[in-house]
Design a protein that fits this description.
about 0% strand
Length: about 180
Amino acid sequence: MDLTVWAHDLAESLLAEPLPRRWSHSQGVAAKAGALAEILGADAELLWSAAMLHDIGYAPTLAVTGFHPLDGARHLRDQTAADDRLVRLVANHSCAVLEAEERGLREQLEDEFPVLDHPALVDALAYCDMTTTPDGKPTTVDARLAEILGRYGLDSIVGRFIRRADPALCATVHRVEGRLATVDK
């Protein structure tokens, strides 16, 4: 089966009914990933699949630790035949290591799922996530970060993580935008 069809079907089965807004976000992130094919070449399908699956750890049937990147990656590793690169992208998307640290899970995340040694691909997934609203619509990184802070609150685990990750996430988005600008010329 085609990787993208498999990823879509899995994400839909886990998110569409219990978390329709999360499902919309995942679809929007994947759509954004599709627009990056020119700068990723052979890795475009892998990025699209990771974008579709990046939030499956929120699914009520998968949430064990309450940290969605780890829960989703563990499901992909333990219950599917997912490629290791895909699993590691899901585990480490959007500066996840910083949130893992806030939750006391950094060592587990790093031991089980080392960051993929492919900065352009890691950046691309964060770009897609950080420029897509919870409803799956395009947005700016600044608006997305403000929305996350507003939804979770400044002093929550997610709020503390987002404030720490803000400079790295903004830099990531700007790097990808720079790569896209060179292709558009």
